[in-house]
Amino acid sequence: MLRKIVRFVEEEKLFYRDEKILVTVSGGVDSVVLLNLLCEMEVECGVAHCNFHLRSDESDGDFEFVKNLAREKGLPFYSKDFDTKTYAAENKISIEMAARDLRYKWFEDLREAFDYKYIAIGHHADDVAETVLINLARGTGIHGLSGIKSKLGKIVRPLLPFPRKQLLKYAKENSIEFREDSTNAETDYVRNKIRHQIMPVLEEINPAIRTTMTENVQRFREVEQIYNLVIEENRLHLVFTRENQLLISIPKLKELLAPVSNLFELLSPYGFHHRDVRQIAESIHGISGKLFYSATHQLLRDREYLILTEISESNKNEYSIAEEDSLLKIPLEIKISKLDRTTGFKFPTDQKIACLDSNLLKFPLILRKWKEGDSFRPIGMKGKKKISDFFIDQKFSMQDKEDTWLLISGSKIVWVVGHRMDDRFKITKATTKIFRLELA
Known about the structure:
Largest sheet: 6 strands, mixed
Helix content: 40-55%
Low-confidence stretches: none
CATH architecture of the largest domain: 3-Layer(aba) Sandwich
Strand order of the largest sheet: 3-2-1-4-6-5
Oligomer: single chain
CATH superfamily of the largest domain: HUPs
Number of domains: 3
Strand content: 15-25%
């Protein structure tokens, strides 16, 4: 096994043996075996351990085990406690994702602070197969089918050639102690469901499924390399820069065999997701003028080009809504629909819904935060009211004020979003077309 890991490290160019490596050790068989193998290779190591406090006394036992292991080997030991559940709740993400975010950020901080060249993670061959299945279940492209990379930035994974059974065998033969994580047997987490429920079924179909998956992943990686070459070749013909803008040729994009995939690879580094890219791709067959947003960038569908620009600090709080839009995701999720006025139309009483006279609106509408001096005519009133006075009347807290958005048509406020419409844009007997917005 030692010869195999040495060969893998050399073939994959993971690191040189005279470079300092920070080894992440949970106490489980994979990370403990990894540490032992790197020590056998006489690599200079440090040990990093996270306590996520998800298993009470068991988590504390892992900490003590890894601390003692590092002391026995005479290695530097670093540990940190995390309030994982609070972090997950505050960021509205899963416990799994919270633990991942917390540990990787801390590992990188340690690497920089103590001058380690790379961070070694104990992922093995079984993890690769499980990751591909997870990605397939959630939706993925070719990158998600290529599994876990042996080297990605400062992260290296020397155990990828080894299935877990081989790690367990090595630990037994070499009398290596490790800790069993009781949650590995549970099926609350996605990866455990794959491991304990899906993989056994696949093994019934193909007893060598883990080997087959490893071989599949290798083929996918080769396909990914070809894919990346084609994407880069297309980029040369599609894209050029002008001042602070990135321009993508619409006529040349239309000529491509897979415009959506090409567009995704061009735009994903700027925060655009698959759903956004598909809408952008559809827009190239429509009229110009439509705008799309990520958290950091704005993309304009112009006549000949898709024009990408970074959202400046001065307009980060302004977003446009085109007449043909059906959904806004940033900064609020708003469903948009166009209706004909019928005799059976009922006026909504829900403040999260605004039904406006479409013929009175000037597009694109603008969504922005309030400014000093803003005023509107609350529905049912004849006179104007300052937005600041409206906030006082509604007993808005400071946070409520900061969280409130205004919908603007031309220079007029048409809706204090989620609170009150403007009387000048309400539905009347003369209304024929309705522009409906619903705050999710």
